[in-house]
Task: inverse folding
């Protein structure tokens, strides 16, 4: 028995169970465990925390335990022994390196995951009694997740498992970690569901396409030639959600929302998604739909006001925990990190972009970088910020520019004195900008003040300088 055999086997099991091959950290955990290293040593060599390694390892042992027929649990302490036992009892299969493991056919060549089914399906009629969940992760990305979001995760788990919420909206700026937290959530709760499906909205699928793909997954029957009416598709979907505990994750929902309008309107041709969300929120069933989006469709807030079992979680600044990213990136001047995190809104993706620039230009010296005003944001981040700004209506753009031209935060009454816009326009624009996370709210003693988020303030300053 050698480590390569274990790695091949583990890769096949994880691929069969999750649709994805082992990632680098999982491989490091296996190697470290094989070499009898402590979790703390594995964490040190992987440059992440011991807590994170333990979490990932615990999920890995759980996944690998699925392949044992006798219900025994794999742990760090018994990995070698359990694998050896499995190997001996499956020797004929294993030695040919091709065959049937668990209930999924696998090939020996782990470098060709496409030869394996991305989607684990065992029967055509959904049954809540099957012990293993049916999972389709094929459209989910692989992301790093090292900064703690345990509070938000606990909230999501509580909504999903205790409160049985039917619709959960995770919103926040690009790069704040919506996809990452949804993936982390999935890995912790997947055994609580019969069916789990992840769909990306990058290509802005129509409602018809989405419903077809969901029904195909739940029924395990191709839907290509079928032309069902939308109401029929919706009622079929609800049947599946009633009879089984299903989890649907729709990532990047903002792709179907309209640009250059106030927040929350659908693009033309996508308005019927309202029916999907309304149906899922209002009809009784035992499943949940989670979506990630930069902004929320208008009816979500309305459904919430009507006491439907739906919930919205807005992801915010990572705060101090973002230090871990800067540490991993090897930045210097620790005393300046909180300022950098504040300017970049505690956004993990944007901080990674900043770190790369600071290393290129200043060998990692954060203090030196912060001295140059307006800050140099770099092409990559500029494109992202422009994507956010390009979604604004003309009214929002004007109000945003007016606020950013002031050194201090401004109140609504300041607008009344300094703007020709009607009260109603000002209220509409400020609310919309808040929902898009572009404005910060500051409670003063007697009034509420608004300021443009620091990174957008820097961007607008940079633009003024360059024009
Ligand atoms: N808790 C975290 N710790 C460390 N890195 C994180 C964390 N959350 C997200 N990231 C990293 O930040 C980047 C952006 O995360 P993610 O893709 O989840 O953002 P998003 O909110 O889904 O963005 P978008 O709206 O553009 O899809 C990724 O590289 C991810 O690995
Ligand atoms: Mg995302």
Result:
């Amino acid at each position: 028995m050698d480590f390569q055999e274990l790695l091949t086997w583990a890769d096949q099991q994880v691929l069969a169970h999750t649709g994805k091959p082992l990632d680098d950290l999982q491989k490091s955990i296996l190697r470290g465990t094989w070499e009898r290293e402590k979790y703390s040593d594995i964490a040190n060599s992987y440059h992440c925390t011991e807590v994170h390694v333990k979490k990932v390892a615990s999920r890995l042992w759980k996944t690998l335990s699925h392949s044992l027929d006798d219900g025994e649990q794999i742990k760090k302490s018994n990995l070698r022994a359990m694998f050896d036992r499995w190997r001996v009892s499956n020797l004929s299969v294993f030695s040919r390196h091709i065959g049937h493991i668990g209930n999924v056919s696998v090939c020996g060549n782990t470098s060709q995951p496409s030869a394996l089914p991305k989607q684990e399906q065992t029967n055509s009629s959904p049954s809540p009694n099957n012990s293993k969940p049916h999972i389709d992760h094929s459209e989910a990305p692989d992301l790093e997740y090292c900064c703690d979001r345990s509070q938000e995760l606990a909230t999501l788990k509580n909504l999903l498992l205790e409160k049985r919420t039917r619709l959960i909206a995770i919103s926040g700026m690009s790069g704040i970690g919506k996809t990452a937290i949804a993936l982390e959530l999935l890995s912790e709760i997947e055994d609580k569901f019969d069916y789990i499906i992840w769909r990306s909205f990058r290509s802005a699928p129509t409602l018809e396409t989405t419903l077809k793909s969901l029904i195909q997954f739940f029924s395990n029957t191709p839907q290509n030639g079928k032309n069902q009416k939308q109401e029929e598709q919706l009622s079929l979907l609800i049947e599946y959600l009633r009879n089984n505990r299903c989890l649907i994750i729709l990532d990047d929902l903002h792709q179907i929302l309209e640009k250059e309008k106030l927040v929350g309107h659908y693009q033309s041709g996508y308005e019927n998604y309202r029916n999907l969300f309304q149906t899922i929120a209002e009809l009784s069933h035992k499943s949940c739909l989670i979506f990630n989006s930069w902004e929320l469709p208008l009816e979500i807030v309305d459904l919430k006001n009507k006491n439907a079992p739906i919930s919205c979680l807005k992801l915010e600044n990572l705060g101090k925990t973002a230090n871990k990213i800067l540490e991993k990136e090897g930045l210097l001047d620790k005393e300046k990190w909180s300022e950098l995190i504040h300017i970049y809104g505690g956004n993990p993706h944007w901080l990674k972009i900043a770190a790369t620039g600071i290393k290129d230009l200043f060998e990692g010296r954060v203090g030196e970088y912060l001295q140059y005003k307006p800050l140099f944001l770099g092409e990559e981040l500029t494109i992202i910020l422009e994507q956010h700004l390009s979604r604004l209506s003309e009214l929002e753009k004007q109000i945003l520019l007016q606020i950013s031209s002031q050194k201090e935060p401004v109140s609504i009454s300041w607008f009344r004195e300094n703007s020709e816009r009607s009260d109603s326009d000002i209220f509409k624009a400020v609310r919309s900008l808040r929902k898009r996370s572009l404005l910060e709210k500051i409670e003063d003693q007697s009034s509420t003040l608004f300021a443009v988020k620091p990174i957008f303030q820097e961007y607008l300053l940079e633009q003024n300088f360059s024009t």
Residues 143-147, 149, 172, 174-180, 252, 292, 294, 325, 348-349 surround adenosine-5'-triphosphate (ligand 1) (CB under 6 Å). Residues 43 and 272 are 47 Å apart (CA to CA). The first strand starts at residue 99 and ends at 101.
